[in-house]
Amino acid sequence: MALSRGLRCCQKVFSWIPVLIITSVVLWSYYAYVFQLCLCNVNLNNNVAMAYLLVFHVCFVMFSWTYWKSIFTPPASPCKKFQLSYSDKERYEMEERPDAQKQILVEIAKKLPIFTRAQSGAIRFCDRCQVLKPDRCHHCSVCETCVLKMDHHCPWVNNCVGFSNYKFFLLFLSYSMLYCIFIAATVFQYFLKFWVGDLPNGPAKFHVLFLMFVALMFFVSLMFLFGYHCWLVAKNRSTLEAFSAPVFVGGPDRNGFNVGVRRNLQQVFGEDRRLWLIPVFTSQGNGHYFPLKNVSESQNPLLANEEMWEESDDCSDEGSLGESLKF
């Protein structure tokens, strides 16, 4: 046991290495751009330097804010309504027949807004967390918990990307691209001057040359990743659902949650477009259920009368998740 705890502790420590790498690169880029390019060694016009610094700091603040929110926003987990009650858990564990266990889960799931199934057609149940998995919920072996609308576990933010922070992750990618392209665009002319020898050698030359290469390298990588996630948002799919289609009663359907581009965007960013580019939580719902392509809320009494299955437990507290994530 002590060895196992030691290994888990080491794993948690090492999991922060990618974050430290990104943080180190960003801090170096700040030093290189602000001090080496704008203030010290490259003769910039004062007005140009002030304009560069103003826009740079806006990009830097938005990047840092979204990166912080992506890292430190805890992944949302299913509320207590999806956990087995003591009597149901005892009945489930005492039952040895798999078919009978499946039937017990089916009876419990009838009271919940669960429409997806396992590949076998059974109700999705997590043995580790002892919960019935809401639609789009998956267990993360790294975070050791079930995550609502799990997209993937990202080592670069050392966190699960899911319902609670997916908007923050998308904004982090977009502001990272903006940060890189701004640096590359403003450094390019001085990169050429250093390259052809029009400017004297010195510490600034090294920093300017590497700023150009690093900014372009990260921009190209981020461009493909951001483009992929834009496609996922437009289709209302997670990364996991793109690789393995969610299974419904009628069978697998990759577009089961696709309710149109506009509504798909609103599920992630909210209805108020003024807040779309700001890293505050505005996603719709509480992560436990999602509109279906083939079932409207008016046709589904569980979704149309949400309070009927929330009022008896603290799912209503989970429903106010957005309010707590705004701060």
Please describe what this structure looks like.
The chain is mainly alpha-helical. The chain has a domain at about 5-75 and about 165-220. Helix content is about 55%, strand content about 5%. The chain has 13 helices and nine strands. The chain has helices at about 1-15, 15-40, 45-70, 85-95, 100-110, 165-195, 205-235, 240-245, 260-270, 300-305, 305-310, 315-320, 320-325; strands at about 115, 125, 130, 140, 145, 150-155, 160, 245-250, 250. The strands form four sheets. It has a three-stranded antiparallel beta sheet with strand order 1-8-9, with no helix packed on it. Strands 2-3 form a two-stranded antiparallel sheet. Strand 8 (about 245-250) and strand 9 (about 250) form a beta hairpin. The longest helix is centred in the last third of the chain and has 33 residues, at about 205-235. The protein is elongated. The two termini are about 40 Å apart. The model is unreliable at about 300-305 and about 305-315 (pLDDT under 50).
